[in-house]
Specification:
alpha/beta, Quinone Oxidoreductase, Chain A, domain 1, 2 domains, about 25% helix, oxidoreductase activity, acting on NAD(P)H, GroES-like_sf, Zinc-type alcohol dehydrogenase-like protein C2E1P3.01, Trans-enoyl_RdTase-like, ADH-like_N
Length: about 350
């Protein structure tokens, strides 16, 4: 592998520009890293958003390589790595630094935030997992001291973590989104019941298979959705709401649905109208940055990846339905355009970097 110096990558040459396929150097792993031949990479909204402000502030250099979801084969291990070997198939999350990005043919990743892919999961399916699952797990379970973007619930992997919320209702807005699907599954694992989600009704079968108990048509007016909730919860207060969409149209609904003293997760900046907020309601809002590479997220991310292989193998966590785009990395720009125009529902778009011409 050391003789291979260049590779194909999806490149952004300037802020506000368009992605195109070009040549990039093959990165080298550090002592705690592995070099991965990226077989599958998923597309996410952040991949188009990062090209423009404010998210472009994350970019350290141009040309920039994007990609935060990956699966592939280990082809080189760092000197201090003992948990992986060449030939292992792993799933992992990318980062906003060219060597760590997934929309290229080869990348590096710290070994401690990888998981082996079990035989029942394909590489394409595995690539749908990292960002979506991290965006849920970090929001609920990150215990980093002084870090405000988490609800600090007891993790499901700790004693009592899967029973603390047993029988308490959960409300998830955007259940068919990638993040929403993982929110449903973690809510189920944590014991929440019933699990009420908003989604297009054609996704009912998919979402009930993941653990949702009630599907509310997302096209209903917010007041109509709020009116339905007391009946669906059996009159119990909604102490946990996850807004996987987090737009100005959904955040007010999420906040109003939440009971006093409850916890709300949003995935974008808080735009809940101040007129709805009352300090006396003690509602906690967690604005999550769903990436395990971030220093404040790393410890929780390591705990997640210790368990991910088992969760996938046992079906505790099921990957998103995937659509593989043709043309390798060359298919990514069109896929990102579909994401930007809200033309994707209930599935994850995947590219195979090795199929790039």
């Amino acid at each position: 592998m050391a003789t291979v110096q260049t590779q194909k990558a999806l490149l952004l040459h300037a802020e506000g520009g368009k992605y195109s396929v070009g040549d990039a150097p093959v990165p080298r792993p550090g002592p705690k890293d592995v070099l991965v031949k990226v077989e599958a990479a998923a597309l996410n909204p952040i991949d188009w958003k990062i090209a423009i402000p404010p998210f472009s502030g994350l970019i350290q250099e141009y040309p920039f390589i994007t990609g935060t979801d990956g699966a592939g084969v280990v082809i080189e291990v760092g000197a201090e790595v003992t948990s992986l070997k060449e030939g292992d198939k792993i799933v992992f999350q990318g980062w906003f630094s060219n060597p760590l990005a997934t929309l290229q043919q080869f990348c590096v990743v710290p070994a401690e935030i990888t998981a082996l892919i079990p035989d029942n999961i394909s590489l394409d399916q595995a690539a749908s997992v990292p960002l979506g699952l991290a965006t849920v797990v970090l929001a609920l379970y990150n215990q980093h001291p002084g870090y405000p973007k988490t609800l600090r619930y007891k993790p499901v992997w700790e004693e009592g973590g899967s029973t603390e919320f047993a029988g308490k209702p959960a409300f998830i807005i955007g259940g068919a989104s990638s993040v929403g699907q993982y929110a449903i599954q973690i809510a189920k694992l944590a014991g929440f019941s019933p699990i009420i989600v908003t989604a297009s009704l054609h996704n009912t079968e998919l979402l009930t298979s993941l653990g949702a108990t009630h599907i509310v048509d997302r096209s209903l007016e917010p007041d109509a959705i709020l009116a339905k909730l007391p009946e669906l919860t059996g009159g119990k207060p909604l102490e946990f709401v996850y807004d996987a969409i987090s737009l100005p149209e959904t955040m007010p609904l999420a906040y109003q649905a939440l009971a006093p003293g409850g916890g709300l997760v949003i995935t974008l900046s808080d735009v809940i109208p101040a007129t709805l907020k009352d300090e006396g309601d003690r509602k906690q809002i967690a604005y999550v940055f769903g990436n395990v590479h971030a220093p404040e997220n790393r410890t929780c991310g390591v705990e997640l990846y210790k368990r991910l292989t088992e969760w996938l193998e046992k079906g505790i966590i099921k990957p998103n339905t995937v659509e593989v785009l043709p043309g390798g990395l060359a298919g990514a720009p069109e896929g990102l355009e579909r994401l930007e125009n809200n033309k994707v529902s209930g599935k994850k778009l995947i590219v195979r970097p090795q199929e790039t011409a």
